[in-house]
Amino acid sequence: MDGAITDSARDAMLRAAVAGVDRVTLTAALARADDPHHPVPTPVANALHALRRHRDPAAVIGKVQYRATLPYAAAVLADACLAATVEVLGEDADEPDRAQLLAALDQVVEEHGASIVTVMLASVADSDMPSSDLCFDLLAADPRWHLAGWEAFEREGGPAPPGAPAGAPTEQREARRERKRRETEARRRRAEADRRADEQRRARRRRDRPGPATGAATRAATDPTETGHRRPTVTRRAVLTPAQEEEFDRGHPWVGGLVKVWVPYAAGGVDDAGERGKVRPSVVVAGSATQLLVRPGYSEGGMKSRDWKAVPLAHWRHAGLDQATWVDVETVRVELPEAGPFGRLSPEDWNALW
User: Fold this and answer.
1) Closest to 127 in 3D by CA, of 185, 65, 176
2) Domain locations in the chain?
């Protein structure tokens, strides 16, 4: 595309990409976007609710009243594809060149299909990621992603994002990016301060607990090797989406540990007792001052242990578990529990998750 890429063009490309997704796939994605662990602004939540009730969401999602839901629906549609692409790119994932990205797409398109790869590229193009312009150019120039005629969506018009009139020059976009970077850094500093304060409060509670700790108990409290749970040397990085990267820290001290947290049942189901979830041992993959990203564990014989995508733990006893455990491929956002990790994965089991 000649000249600066406008925000209206990026928005039009995202609408064109989502419009190419079939109704069944889009409806399923909209259902997943209603996860209560992933809060969205109230106006967007209301639009999502109305859109899910529509007979054919794919036909109306580009209309003005539903347009605010597009980035959220696209993120859910593209999540698994984006994670696979990041894994293929490896160390080049933050800012790949054109050849590297094309080579990665050749691998992921076989599993996820051209329409979902198109949504992923359009979602990144609509973001402030370093590779956004590259993804936009690929969609505009490469006919295999089936976005010919996307310009018609731009001509349809619609409200521009606040502070971003159609045809905004590159300088204005760079100023917005810089402002977002500053805001992200400020949030990170606040989260780090909150995390340190939480750690200090937990330390004070531990000191105030009654009863002396001597001998082996004292060593176990101060030396993790006494419990048999040596913190692993993690050789693979957890795969996060861009949105998760902005909010969560892979360097959180609990990463690689096992915590017990309440996990909702898939698709909002309930069991015979009417419960909507249960407490499960879960692997921490990233964290913030108030929340964790975890991958839940399931026992032998359960549905997840028969799922070919679930990962069996080879060293579950070493991790502090009392039975064979399978780890789900999906991540779940949970509130930070009061109790820290009761065990840690071996390096082999951690690497097997990625």
Assistant:
1) 176
2) 7-168, 224-266+274-352
The structure tokens listed for 267 are 């698709």
DSSP 8-state assignment for residue 256 = T
pLDDT tens, 16-60? Answer: 888 888 888 888 877 776 655 555 677 777 877 787 787 777 777
Whole-prediction pTM: 0.43
In which band, very low, low, confident or very high, does the pLDDT at 221 lie, cut at 50, 70 and 90? very low
Q: Using an 8 Å Cβ cutoff, are 156 and 150 in contact?
A: no
Residues, the chain? 354
Distance CA 240, CA 247 (A): 10
3-state SS track over 152-208: HHHHCCCCCCCCCCCCCCHHHHHHHHHHHHHHHHHHHHHHHHHHHHHHHHHHHHHHH
pLDDT at 272 over 70: no
Dihedrals phi, psi of 346, to nearest 5 degrees: -70, 160
Which three-class secondary structure state does DSSP give residue 151? helix
Q: DSSP states of 52-80 as a string?
A: HTSS-HHHHTTSGGGGGGHHHHHHHHHHH
Paired tokens of 34: 């209603």
Query: What Å distances lie between residue 188 and 93, 195, 201, CA to CA?
Result: 22, 10, 20
Beta-bridge mates of residue 312: 326
Cα three-residue angle 109-240-77, rounded to 5 degrees: 45
Instruction: With beta carbons less than 8 A apart as the criterion, state whether 293 and 284 touch.
Output: yes
One-letter identity of residue 339: A
What whole-number distance in Å separates Cα of residue 95 and Cα of residue 226? 42
Cα separation of 304 and 293, whole Å? Answer: 19
Q: Calculate the alpha carbon distances from 271 to 282, 292, 348 in Å.
A: 20, 25, 34
CATH class of 224-266+274-352: mainly beta
Residue 329 backbone zone (phi > 0: left; psi -120 to 50: alpha; other: beta): alpha
Q: For residue 263, what are the β-bridge partners?
A: 278
Query: What is d(CA 265, CA 276) in angstroms, rounded to the nearest whole number?
Result: 6
